[in-house]
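Each letter names a residue; the fold follows as tokens. Both lines appear below:
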Amino acid sequence: MSRHDRLGFFRNHPYVPQFGEEIKQCANALAALGLKGGDRITISMPTSPQGIICFYAANKLGAVASMIHPLSTVKEIEFYLNKSKSRFVLTLDAFYGRFKEVQACTDLQTLILTRIPDYLDLIKKIGFNLTKGRKNSPGAPGSHGSLVAGSYERSLPRSFQGADGYG
């Protein structure tokens, strides 16, 4: 079994050769958003390219990445964010509301949103969109294609979306 087969999501995926470059781009974007060595970022994602890329990008910057289950309850999210003192979070757009709800009682400043379909091949992307829909979570800023992180748009890999953490 090749090392790419162990990451089943990536098997025969056209983005595998670009993985290192996307880690570098993500690290640059995270740095532009203010993440630096010693900072903490919480990643609340299923096993997906975006979560893995962000984990390695944070490590590249010397930041500490904590992983929490993407289906954590609001109370659990609040506990984990306070325990880790994370100022940054990467999660799916579908979970925006949960993190926004705990923002006022945590150190969370920057919420970065992404979508699972961005790394699926065309057929799987169509299937995902047909079964899950393309609507934002209630209260999620912008559309799936928008990036709210302003000037950092060009630095972020195509699958990462930012949402300002300031209401």
Remarks:
- The chain is about 35% helix and 15% strand.
